Amino acid sequence: MDADILTGHFREIYGRDLNLDAVSGYADIVAKLNAAIRDAAEKGLAFEDEPSAFLGVIARHGQL
Amino acid sequence: MSTAIEQLTLEEAARAIARGDVSSEQVTALSLERLRRLGPLLNCVANVADDSVLDVARTLDRERARGKLRGRLHGVPLAHKDLFYRKGRRVACGSKIRRDFVANTTATVLERLDAAGALDLGTLHMSEFAFSPTGYNHHYGHGLNPWDLTRVPGGSSSGSAAAVAARLVYGSLGTDSGGSLRHPAAMCGLTGLKPTQTRVSRAGVMPLSHSLDCVGPLARTARDCAWLLQAIAGPDHADPTAAGFSVPDFDAGLTGDVTGLRIAVPTNYYYDHATEDVRRLLDATLDVYRQLGAKVSPVRVPDVNLFNTLAQVIMGVEAATIHQRWLATRRNEYSDIVRARIEVGLMYPATRYCEALALRGKLTEAFISATLGECDVLHLPAVSIPVPTIEETTNGDPAHIARTLGALTHCTRGINYLGLPAVTLPCGFTANRMPCGFQLVGRPFAEGLLLRVADAYQRAIDWHRRAPALQE
Questions:
Q1: I want to staple B407 with a disulfide (CB 3.0 to 4.6 A). Which of A33, A55, B273, B431 is the partner?
Q2: Can the peptide bond before residue B156 be classed as cis, meaning omega within 30 degrees of 0?
Q3: Strand B435-441 to B377-381 pairing
Q4: What is the pLDDT of residues B225-259, one digit of tens each?
Q5: pLDDT at site B301
């Protein structure tokens, strides 16, 4: 994400500037996240499920 | 009574009260005295109830004398993590921001414990807003482990674990969004149960992450946990996410029989950080299960690092949403470390958050199929390393601290993303003479099976009977 957009967004909502460097581990976490999502997509995992699909999965097992 | 009252398990105390061998007033007075005298020593108490709770105990004793028991927990004193709301009571959530917050509602789980006859003796210390796997709290001091006051008790339900381990109360409710029940249970030598996501109502509980939070019991034995879970589980009109399934009789399911049970043991990921003594203790638990007639099978688990990362996104975004008004207006009242953990959630793209949620169903199916397709339970370490000192987790090289904290959560966080139930129980002591625990993970809503398997182990091995010797 473009840092200017991000800090502008932050300023608008929270009324102060954001120093990305001050947020612990942010860059590392985002890099891991992007890699994980990319990896999941490459493995063919689809993203079209709505979040409640998860509740359906555990409910189905609960009825077994 | 041949055993000191405080050494009884929750089940034993409840039965002794029901028989009239001991009164609720006696038991409650002892717990109050121990909370007041030993609570400060362990820094495990937020607020202790006043003596009016003894009037409630006397009322319960009179009811029992007339042959009336409100439920299985009739007259048993408990205390809970300081994030369960009770109308008119201060609930600080381990924070400075909510130091003076007085709840105007009562958590469903507390109402259910009241209905089962339990007494609520106060609120127990916790990590600030439930962040921290060690029990660190910048505002009110680090929680202390009753087995060694220089070591961490585990968090974020640190006070719950310390109070139950030190025999101040017979059980406690905590919450678990990434291991917050299971870390302290393992590090303090207790049994802790994280139920299936949606098994227990979260109404009236200060949230950390709506998608990951679970309420569950911390106690000395699997049977104690079964009794507590029985009281709190089930549908709740105040929490539409609570599952509508009926709740089985968990106690009746504790048969001690694990003949033919199939136990899956991972060949990858979960032992990456395990020390030799943790591995040895975990292996010994498998020997016990083999002797009891269970079969052990190796399995390869899917990419748990992916679950951990996705869980981190969900927790960060949801926590940031919950806290944004205070981040804007009272940011200096957070400790730096907690504020940093929440603020990062403001910066994840919305699509990443939605992707993390969208993948959850399919990844859960895939995990169950890979690990529990041919097996009944998955056997894991609870915490990969021996319980560290407070010094090791707060001072020194930040990279070393980060590695230590990462090792503490290595085996727990992904299970919350998958929404699966997990029980942690003690399995001995590492070389530093601190408790070690193992985890059993089951299919959704398999709490009954997990408790049966845990109870079978505790019938064979008595680690759960060991108590710390407190030096006053």
A1: B273
A2: yes
A3: antiparallel
A4: 999 999 999 999 999 999 988 899 999 999 999 99
A5: 97
B180 is catalytic: yes
The answer to whether B268 and B301 are in contact (CB under 8 A) is yes
Is any Cβ of chain B less than 8 angstroms from the Cβ of A3? Answer: no
Rounded to an integer, what distance in angstroms lies between the CA atom of residue B23 and that of residue B213?
Answer: 36
Q: Tell me the nearest-neighbour CA distance from A14 into chain B, angstroms.
A: 5
Contact residues, chain A, for B212 at CB < 8 Å:
none
Of B312, B349, B365, the CB nearest to A29: B312
Q: Judge whether B156 counts as a catalytic residue.
A: yes
Write down the pLDDT at residue A2. 54
B443 to A48: CB separation less than 8 angstroms, yes or no: no
Measured distance CA(A30)–CA(B78) in Å, rounded: 42
Which ranges of chain B have pLDDT less than 50? Answer: none
Distance from CA of A37 to the nearest CA of B (A): 8
Supply the ipTM of this predicted assembly. Answer: 0.80
CB B112 within 8 A of CB B232: yes
Burial class (CB in 10 A: 0-12, 13-18, 19+), A43: exposed
pLDDT in tens, B35-94: 999 999 999 999 999 999 999 999 999 999 999 999 999 999 999 999 999 999 999 999
Type and span of the H or E element at A34: helix A26-42
Q: Is B182 on the interface with A (CB under 8 A)?
A: no
Q: Bin B386: left if φ > 0, else alpha if -120 < ψ < 50, else beta.
A: beta
For residues B414 and B301, what is the distance between their CA atoms, to the nearest angstrom?
11
Tell which residue, B449, B462, B464, has the closest CA to residue B258. B449
Question: Contact B176/B216 with Cβ under 8 angstroms?
Answer: yes
Name the token pair of B31.
């717990």
Hey, of B347, B365, B413, which one would you mutate to test binding to chain A, going by the most A CBs within 10 A of its CB? B347
Considering only alpha carbons, which residue of chain B is nearest residue A30?
B348
- Nearest residue on chain A to B354, judged by CA atoms? A51
Strand ordering across the sheet containing B119-124: B45-48, B119-124, B77-81
Nearest C-alpha neighbor of B293 from the set B263, B266, B252, B253: B263
- Write down the pLDDT at residue A20: 59
Select the residue of A15, A22, A49 nearest B361 (Cβ to Cβ): A49
Q: CATH for B9-465?
A: 3.90.1300.10
A46–chain B Cβ distance below 8 A for any pair: yes
Number of folded domains in chain A?
Answer: 1
Site from B245, B305, B309, B378 to mutate, A interface, most A CB atoms within 10 angstroms:
B309
Amino acid at B227: W
Residues of B in contact with A51 (CB under 8 A): 211, 354, 357-358, 360
What is the pLDDT at residue B399?
82
